[in-house]
Amino acid sequence: METCFLTTFVIILLFCLAETCYGGGVMFSSLPQTLVVSASPQQGQGNCSTLLYTAEKTHKHEESSVLNAGEDTITLTWGLNQSFTADMADQLYKNVIVKLCYAPISQVDRAWRKTVDNLSKDKTCQFTIVNKPYQRNQSSDQWMVEKDVPTATYFVRAYAYNSAGEEMAYGQTTDDGKKSSNLFEIRGITGRHLSLHVASACFSAFSLASLFGLFWMERRKVSVKK
């Protein structure tokens, strides 16, 4: 019995060590930045516009407009950086996934958005925008901000994957250092819709009317018995 227990313990320990040393996933710091990515709101979207931040004015912006979840769209473009030789840089690229990522200002005190170098554990980019086969020529797409996107400050990042589904390279709309430039805000859907308030008010009124009705009927029964 003890032998079986020790054997099982050793196997589990070896598995954990192997997972830590070899099976931990791709490190973001090991990826080359061979992709060029840009993101901007669709022209003529009312008060919707991109908020551009600069390193000198981090967390400050000249415009107060934001993108509205479920209403506004973003025009995306991505492709291979022309400073790289195509045959050398992207011969293993099979797929591209463009993601919406939290900026550092929206990660503070939020462990569920934490940036980790190990991409299998990284929580920076939680929303997939585009998932398409890789093309060397510049690609573009439009994405409507989904209704479940929370209020926060974001940037866009694209990953190139090989045939095994492993990250091979990346590109993003912000700088690699503090991630303080070319950021934009999204205003999520919060609170209750007007129809819910109306329904709630009607239900409350009906409940009060029913309560008074029952009270009046009980009083009447008592009066009749007397």
UniProtKB/TrEMBL annotation:
Molecular-function GO term, any one: nitrate transmembrane transporter activity
Pfam families to which the protein is assigned, alphabetical: NAR2
GO cellular component, one term: plasma membrane
Signal peptide: 1-23
InterPro entries the record matches: Transptr_NO3_Nar2
Name assigned to this protein: Uncharacterized protein
Organism: Camellia sinensis var. sinensis (China tea)
Transmembrane segments: 194-217
A Gene Ontology BP annotation from the UniProt entry: nitrate assimilation
Keywords per UniProt: Membrane, Signal, Transmembrane, Transmembrane helix
Keyword Signal: yes
